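Q: I'm a student working through a structural biology exercise. My instructor gave each of us a protein and asked us to get a predicted structure, then write a short paragraph describing it. Mine is Thermonuclease family protein. I'm not confident about reading structure output yet, so if you can add a plain explanation after the tokens, that would really help. Here is the sequence I was given:
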Amino acid sequence: MIGTQAPKLPLGRDGFEAWPLADDAKAELEDMVLGQTVQLGYGGARVDRYDRALAHVFLDGLDGLWAQGHMVGTGLARVYSFPDNRACLASLLAAEAQARRDGLGIWTDPYYRVRAAEPPAALAERIGHYELVEGRVLLADRVGSRVFLNFGRYWKEDFTAVIEAKALTLFNDTGLDPLALEGALVRIRGWVDDRDGPRIEVTHPEQIEVLANR
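A: Happy to help. First, here is the predicted structure for Thermonuclease family protein. I'll explain a few features afterward.
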């Protein structure tokens, strides 16, 4: 189900602990789609490396209910996007924001809470996790082919979002200049890694939500 990430189950993986509410999300999806006729809608790459369909799912028997929108809107999935498959993200982000405001599903569990960009020590504990991170961009700077969004004064320790050259082309296509984000309050989603402090690599514009320009 492209565009979403539901809480993960072990699925036979040794040592993998189920994420909170994973069973609830699985049960909701099963109740909705098992035994139903569905239509698949494609908005980008159609299959992944495992030959799985990358599609939006619409149920024939429920007035075309959009499965992704339902799961995100009920708080049992969050938005998870890719640079080569970005259809319907505005609607999904809006549904996610409403579910978060209403305190539905995963948004009641601290595991999924939106993290603060500062101080960086707490984010450093989330290395290897997919997170939503909010903070104000202290400095937006282009160095070579990359743009760095720094959220603190000490770039070797503080949280940073890194936008590579390939991603900058997508930013240009959408009219969003990442250098103009200096001073803005933003929310960034992605996998946290550790290179000179916690950071997220941004591969497409929808990973950044502008909450306030100044």
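A: Here are two points you could use in your paragraph. Residues 3-108 form a domain with the OB fold (Dihydrolipoamide Acetyltransferase, E2P) fold (CATH 2.40.50.90). Residues 89-102 form the longest helix (14 residues). It's a good idea to check both against the output above yourself.
Q: Great, thank you!
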